[in-house]
DNA sequence: TTGATAGTGATTACCTTTTATCAATATAGC
DNA sequence: GCTATATTGATAAAAGGTAATCACTATCAA
């Protein structure tokens, strides 16, 4: 049978952090933010919770090339990301140009999904 | 002064492998292919050569999220990649929809460049 | 309140990719 | 051919991120 899940301050703090963000976070970011609520929180618990939240379908993994996986709520719908080269933060984008993408692939190639990442300077860093 | 470079069978074999490919290769792929020409080739030499070729501007790095860096000739011009989920290979794409991308970013965000990755099944794997 | 046990935190172990080491070898100028 | 030294290959070891361990703690049904 499935393992009985218990509600803990740690998991709640982690979920709250993920709820309040505008983009995907690194495990370390989550740890640093959630520790404000639960000072004793260990990094291992962050990894464990992320794993559980992923299995439960509440959180998904976002990967920027060359960087460690980030995590965000999975109920945001289809979207892509912007990576600020200045501060390193990743932001969610609202729109998608997926329509034009299908015909990028050569004949015989079946496109099932895609990833778009914009790079540049975020609002805070460019002002 | 700059270090004197010498021509070796190893470097030539690595460059030849990179010249003949249709997409970026993993260091391990390069090693496996180049070893046909120079059987004694060690993986360390592949890494060293890739580093040198990058510094010389002849080779650039391509990263697919969640995977190790791949390498390809840097004279291919602007293009993107297709990752086959079946065989794992990465292929170059010829076209780009960069035009529509600028307005994906919110106001205040400066987009300097972008990455597009298509996922699916390549021609060989889908037939 | 109590007890069974899921969860935690500190730490260690791990895994994969990449780099450093170093003796041996190959290159290129003379 | 000879020599100085750049390069190589096998190996060890680093680096970064993640998972396993284990004694202790917290949760929650009874």
Q: Can you offer a commentary on this structure?
A:
The structure is a homodimer of 127-residue chains. Chain A is an alpha+beta fold. Chain A folds into two domains: 1-76, Orthogonal Bundle (Arc Repressor Mutant, subunit A), CATH 1.10.10; 78-127, Ferric-uptake regulator, C-terminal dimerisarion domain (Dna Ligase, domain 1, 2-Layer Sandwich). In chain A, 28% of the residues lie in helices and 21% in strands. The termini of chain A are far apart. Chain A binds chain B through residues 63-66, 69, 80, 82, 85, 91, 93-97, 100-101, 103-123, 126-127, and chain B through 63-66, 69, 80, 82, 85, 91, 93-97, 100-101, 103-123, 126-127. Strand 5 (110-121) of chain A pairs antiparallel with strand 5 of chain B. The first copy, chain A, binds a DNA duplex (30 and 30 nucleotides) through residues 3-11, 27-28, 40-45, 47-48, 51, 68-69.
Overall CATH class of the largest domain in chain A: Mainly Alpha
Name the CATH superfamily classification of the largest domain in chain A.
Winged helix-like DNA-binding domain superfamily/Winged helix DNA-binding domain
How much of the sequence lies in strands of chain A comes to 15-25%
List the helices and strands of chain A in order: HHHEEEEEH
* Count of individual domains of chain A: 2
CATH topology of the largest domain in chain A: Arc Repressor Mutant, subunit A
User: Residue ranges of chain A: pLDDT <50 for 5 or more in a row?
Assistant: none
Number of helices of chain A: 4
Subunit organisation of the chains: homodimer
Widest sheet, order of strands of chain A: 4-3-5
Helix-and-strand structural type of chain A: alpha+beta
Biggest sheet of chain A, in brief?
A: 3 strands, mixed
Which protein chains are joined by the largest interface, and how many residues does each one contribute? Answer: A-B, 39 and 39 residues
Considering DSSP H and I runs of 4 or more, what fraction of the residues of chain A is helical? 25-40%
Please tell me the CATH architecture of the largest domain in chain A by its name. Orthogonal Bundle
Q: Please count the beta strands of chain A (DSSP E, at least 2 residues each).
A: 5
Q: What radius of gyration of chain A results from the CA coordinates?
A: 17 Å
**Whole-Å distance between the termini of chain A?**
55 Å
């Amino acid at each position: 049978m499935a393992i009985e899940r218990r509600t803990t301050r740690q998991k709640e703090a982690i979920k709250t952090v993920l709820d309040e963000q505008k983009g995907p976070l690194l495990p370390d970011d989550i740890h640093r933010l959630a520790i404000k609520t639960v000072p004793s929180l260990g990094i291992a618990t962050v990894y464990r919770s992320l794993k559980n939240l992923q299995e439960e379908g509440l959180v998904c993994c976002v990967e920027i090339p060359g960087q460690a996986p980030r995590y965000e709520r999975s109920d945001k719908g289809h979207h892509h990301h912007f990576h600020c080269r200045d501060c390193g933060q990743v932001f969610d984008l609202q729109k998608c140009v997926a329509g034009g993408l299908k015909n990028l692939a050569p004949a015989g190639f079946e496109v099932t999904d895609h990833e778009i990442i914009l790079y540049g300077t975020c609002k805070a860093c460019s002002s």
